[in-house]
Amino acid sequence: MIKKITGIFDALKAFKVNVLGIFEFFKIASNLKYKEENLKLKEKILELQKENSKLKESLLDQCSMVFEKNVYYKINADDKKEGPFCSGCYDKDQKKIRLHNTTQNFNDYRCPICKVCVQLSYQRSVRVFS
Which pTM value belongs to this model? Predict the structure, then answer.
């Protein structure tokens, strides 16, 4: 009878070890699941931070771009104008395409992308040619 009781206790101890092992397995699996979810959330946070940074930069650019007589100028931190930039390209695609001087006349500027020609006088008045 004592052997049977001892055998039952040994079986219970083995069962307890197996139950604890199964519990540990589920605990580890659960932790791995949470770690995976945590990693996905961190990746999403980095993606959103990059998007936020781009949006902030875009907003600052919009605030610093000034439209004057059919062309855009960017106002720098020291309140100096930079440009001129093509109004068509900026309005359509938010691209700051700098107008280039043409060789025919110092006051003629042409967009290298959309090929619009703009004539600026020294007083910054503008004529637009298509």
Answer: 0.49
Compute the C-alpha angle 105/103/120, nearest 5°: 40
Between the two ends of the chain, the Cα-to-Cα distance in Å is: 109
Domain ranges of the chain: 1-64, 69-129
- Decide: helix, strand or coil at residue 89: helix
**Digit-coded pLDDT (tens) for 64-76:** 888 888 899 988 7
For position 13, what pLDDT does the model report? 63
Picking from 58, 120, 112, 124, the residue whose alpha carbon sits closest to that of residue 88 is 112
Residues 6+ apart with CB under 8 A from 64: 74, 75, 76
Q: What is the pLDDT of residue 2?
A: 61
Nearest alpha-carbon partner for 120 in 128, 112, 15: 128
Alpha-carbon distance 12 to 72, whole Å? Answer: 83
The answer to whether the beta carbons of residues 113 and 98 sit under 8 Å apart is: no
